[in-house]
Amino acid sequence: MIDAIVSPFVEFSFMRRALVGCLALSLGAYCAIPGPIEARTWRVTPDGTGDAPSIEAAMDSAAAFDTVLVAPGEHVIGQVFVTDGVLLIGEEGPLQTRLVPKPSTTNANRLACSLLSRPTQISGLWLEGFDDGGAIADYHCVDIRVLECVFTNNYTGILFDSDVGRITIINNTFVANMRAIDASGATTCRHNIIWDPAYGLEGTIVCNDVLRLEDVPLLWRPGNFSLDPQFCGADDYHVAASSPCAPGNSPRGDNCDLIGALPVGCNPTATKESTWGGVKALYRKQP
Length: 287
Known about the structure:
It is built from 3 helices and 23 strands. With about 290 residues, it is mainly beta. It has one domain (about 40-270). The strands form 4 sheets. Strands 3, 4, 6, 7, 9, 10, 12, 13, 15, 17, 19 and 20 form a 12-stranded parallel beta sheet that branches. The chain has a 7-stranded parallel beta sheet with strand order 5-8-11-14-16-18-21, with no helix packed on it. A two-stranded antiparallel ribbon has the order 1-2. The chain starts with a helix and ends in a 6-residue tail after the last helix.
């Protein structure tokens, strides 16, 4: 799913070219033909044996259009400022890749995006236990995209505070947070399960299953719904085959496809009508 959603962004990102350098020569000017620049992948493992010892260190080393690939496991992070134009991706998706904050009384530990000018992406992560500053905090970034992430037990899942940029939130699951999204600025929000309160949503908001439909601007309410997402278990946020978030089941039409970060993972328990005679037969003595 991530590949399908982000392919235009990835294609754009990795087609960057070198600046054209012109050398003034006595016989005229020579301009070097621009060619592709190789982007680097920084793989980060929980034990620190990857290409960088931590996500913070990888971001400090990464350049625009690089990828920080987060290996499976639990990663304890401080305040991580996402590098301009970098892809931050969970290698095996949110079920395998969990980010939690370092215990701290002084620092606001989270993924933060501040004054970035290029498209920047965060995808395939499970973010848990962050405070009111947001598990992901966007301060005046031009274009940040949050895709296929799970947010649980945070005070705020995503804090978006920008009057100059935009945030795109697609195919995420928010559950058991004090608030899912606290937004101020242009938002594209679609195909998400937002099973917590959301505040300040503006922009294009469609195909979401929201806990409170009143959190959605009046113009967009007909394109969203508020129905039990039918999670597969108390801590299993796959959806049941009968869920309104499963492909083909949305009351808003087939264009909604899968809603949430995780696919169908269970079937509803089948029930069978019983008669009183059938119930009594269960307790008859066998010869």
